[in-house]
From TrEMBL, chain B:
Protein's name in the database: Lipid/polyisoprenoid-binding YceI-like domain-containing protein
Superkingdom field: Bacteria
Matching InterPro entries: Lipid/polyisoprenoid-bd_YceI (IPR007372), TTHA0802/YceI-like_sf (IPR036761)
Source organism of this protein record: Winogradskyella haliclonae
Start and end residues of each Lipid/polyisoprenoid-binding YceI-like domain: 27-175
Amino acid sequence: MLLGVLITGLISAVLVYNYVFNSAHRDISNEEATVSLSAKAIFEQFQTNEALATTNYLDQVIEMKGDVTSIEDNDVVLSSAVQVSFNSQETLKFQKGEQITIKGRCVGYDELLELVKIDQSTLIK
Amino acid sequence: MNKSFLALLIILGFVITQNSEKVIARQGQVSFFSYTSVENIKAENNQVSSIIDLQEGTIAVDMLMNAFIFEKALMREHFNESYIESDIYPKATFEGKILNFDANIQGTQVKMIKGVFKMHGVSKEIEIKTKIENNNDSYLLSGVFETFVEDYNINIPPLLAGNIAKSIEVNFKFEYLPYDN
């Protein structure tokens, strides 16, 4: 009887410990995109009504296409409207003007740069 | 008389156009630390943007809260969903002025930046001691300051109060390059 209680207690403790300390971080590259649209379209939505666009897209996985207008070390800008940052050094292979489709997480709208920001992105095609 | 006046005008024009320029940091780093006896929490944001108007000495910073990276997924969840409520307040901003700033000084200078920091819907006047390094028109701004959780209407449930320090240490490092508007 006592042994039973002890074992249950131990298993619960391990489960709680695991939940608190080892919860997996989201793996965006393996998640399904909730919406697919163009870089220009999402930018326009944030420009028109930032609060609404935030509710719709913040923290969501977005599939997005656009043409590369600027390339930096870790990120590219699509259609001069959306800054996309990548997990790995994938930006090295892009060319300006290239049409690409990416999947990433929407982090919000940067007022200073006037760009929508997407992170943890991977290239779809 | 005419020639030197003309030369002076040209030089003056050159100096003026040199100074009314903006510099921009696209991947500024801001990290914060909370030290308690229960646990230490650290989070980092490498997507902070900032613009400085070199002539006016004004500085603006835009920081998206959702971009903070935590060691533990659960901490991130608490931070975004319960404390900062990033779906309602997706960003923190700072607007201020670098006091007694001379953009032309090469090398290192230490200045105070005074302005308004807004986070979680609360605006606070703060003054931050900042190290500014000018290296051929690329500027590196860095510093540390302390801020208090309770100043920003952040509600920490009593159960977790021991896990989060009352005063949070914030470190920042921004590298600015010329900005062609």
